[in-house]
């Protein structure tokens, strides 16, 4: 019974990833389909401590594929940019495409203590 349940979950997970893989195949002009391969044009590292981001202002160009790395130097913080579906909840990197210009707020997505709500920054796409 337990084993059956496990294989059911495995099958579900597998089909989910297959479906996700198919979702990308619609783009016409892309020369390769390996969008998840980790190619990027700009790299930004944001250090987080209690209770501040550094830098608290990130500037990129519209169209950049941004590799954003969060480094916690003190405490445990997250980095969330809702506009670009970015949400790092621990040290790590994510790649997103800055496909719209403007100024977007980012903030800490992990409840980290008294100064949590002060942890804010700006992403400027120009
Ligand atoms: Cu926080």
TrEMBL record:
GO terms for molecular function: metal ion binding. Keywords: Copper, Metal-binding, Signal. The keyword Phosphoprotein does not apply. Residues 1-20 form the signal peptide. It is found in: Cell envelope. InterPro entries: Cupredoxin (IPR008972), EfeO_Cupredoxin (IPR028096), NosZ/Cyto_c_oxidase_sub2 (IPR051403). The keyword Signal applies. Its main location: other. One of its GO terms (cellular component) is cell envelope. Residues 35-125 form the EfeO-type cupredoxin-like domain. This is Cupredoxin domain-containing protein. PROSITE patterns: PROKAR_LIPOPROTEIN. It comes from Paenibacillus mangrovi.
